[in-house]
Specification:
Structural class: alpha/beta
Radius of gyration: 31 Å
Shape: elongated
Helix content: 10-25%
Number of strands: 33
Length: 451
């Protein structure tokens, strides 16, 4: 026996209850396809090879995991034991060495490395079990296969719920599906599994009986119920999302982030939150967001593909789109949208502003209603605002354009030419005041019956 470890991820299921054109295992949890959660988990254990078993028509799945795992095809849906068999060639080396093969499912994103490591440890233990099965204890075990233990606490058999008798139905320990199997006898045992059942399928659960009949011991490792969550419907997808969000929130808080109303904050799988970051209620993090120490994200903000440096304040009601880079101590206020723009340290855009394809220099101030007009209908153009510049309210900066350091742009301006360093730019139409004009206008409207 060696310590070598391989994994087979079963992902050939059609997922018909999802009612989707997207293969089930590619549906996302916290922004990442379910199959990638599983691959990441087995990857942390150093499993090699990792074989993903797919159906013949699942080109999208094979493309999604290209470079991450070996793939094999289950030509017909003949059951879970049959689904492992296409991995035979890829596992030939480890089967000869006598390592361990983990068998798990591509639609179970909540499985943790720690639980799988305990299964591998049990498989490699002195009792040398042929099969280690993951068990859990749900509040309502009615629909789950039961794990029947012997007097020595070894696993004697797995009984499907529909086949369980009165005594077996009282058992609370249920089958979690995942197995760690002795690679040296895996395919020998699989070949011995028959399909004499109502569906004429080859069930992986029968491997326990095969191993026991061969005089081998089987064992159980128990995990938290949430880890066994499988997704086979939109309702299940929502439940898994909720469970993953709860896990991510706890991890963020354990790492020093304050979530003032955790249940209202939605994180992505790669959200990075530093120490002493404060996140207020109803904030959504998309993919690729990094928030550094001491920053504050206020309510109802949405961030994706953005960096927020230490001490910056974002929101409330702010939107940071991909490429937004918010400098230390900068302020991005309510109803401000930033896209593909660098906001340098100490700069402020406190309300009702759009900044796209731009640089805003350190300590520059953008008044309410400032817009960088970056798109001409054909191409995007850059706006450069120098350090310490002041842009008055309701200003349109028509890119490409530069506002120099320390320059001031008067409110209501439409700027189409570069503004030099320390210059004052005011671009407005001539103001005209007609004394008594408003009264005469109202009188004429009333006389015409339109007032």
């Amino acid at each position: 026996m060696t310590d070598r470890l391989a994994a087979v991820v079963l992902a050939a299921g059609k997922g018909t209850r999802m009612k989707s054109d997207l293969p089930k295992v590619l549906h996302r949890i916290a922004g990442k396809p379910m199959i990638e959660w599983v691959l990441d988990t087995v990857g942390t254990l150093g499993a090699e090879p990792v074989v993903v078993v797919t159906a013949p028509d699942q080109d999208a799945v094979r493309a999604a995991i290209s470079g991450r795992a070996t793939t094999a095809i289950q030509e017909q849906a003949l059951g879970t034991a049959d689904a492992v068999k296409p991995a035979r060639e890829a596992l030939a080396s480890i089967a000869a060495d006598g390592g361990t093969v983990l068998v798990l499912y591509g639609d179970t994103p909540m499985m943790t490395p720690a639980t799988l490591a305990r299964m591998v440890e049990a498989r490699n233990g002195k009792e040398n079990p042929a099969v280690v099965v993951l068990g859990f204890e749900p509040d309502d075990p009615a629909l789950y296969g039961r794990l029947v233990l012997g007097a020595d606490h070894s696993l004697e058999r797995i009984v499907e719920a529909r086949d369980a008798g009165p005594v077996e139905r009282e058992i609370g320990l249920c089958n979690g599906g995942v197995m760690a199997i002795d690679a040296s006898v895996l395919f020998e045992m699989l070949d011995a599994i028959g399909n004499a059942n109502a569906k004429s399928e080859f069930y992986l659960t029968d491997i326990v009986g095969i191993a026991r009949a061969a005089g081998r011991r089987c064992a159980v490792v128990i995990c938290d119920t949430v880890e066994t969550m499988g997704v086979d419907s939109r309702v299940g997808l929502a439940a898994a999302e909720a469970a993953m969000q709860a896990r991510l929130r706890v991890a963020a808080m354990d790492n020093g982030t304050t979530l003032t109303a955790p249940e209202t904050v939605f994180l992505c799988h790669d959200t990075s939150l530093g120490r002493d970051v404060t996140v207020h209620p109803h904030v959504v993090f998309g993919a690729g967001v990094s928030v550094e120490d001491g920053a504050e994200i206020r309510s109802f903000s949405h961030l994706e593909g953005a960096r927020v440096a230490s001490g910056a304040i974002v929101g409330p009601y702010a939107r940071l789109r991909p490429g937004a880079d918010i400098g230390a101590g900068a302020h991005i206020g309510n109803f401000v949208e930033i896209k593909n723009a660098v906001i340098e340290p100490g700069a402020k855009a406190n309300h009702l502003t759009y900044v796209g394809d731009a640089r805003v220099g350190a300590k520059a101030n953008l008044g309410a209603g400032t817009i960088t007009c970056n798109y001409d209908g054909f191409a995007k153009h850059h706006t450069d605002i120098g350090a310490g510049a002041f842009i008055g309210s309701n200003t349109a900066l028509v890119a490409p354009v530069t506002v120099g350091e320390g320059a001031i742009v008067g409110a209501g301006s439409v700027v189409t030419r570069d503004v030099p360093v320390d210059a004052l730019a005011v671009v407005r139409g001539a103001e005209k005041i007609v004394p008594g004009g408003a009264a005469r206008f109202r009188a004429s409207r009333a006389k015409s019956g339109k007032g």
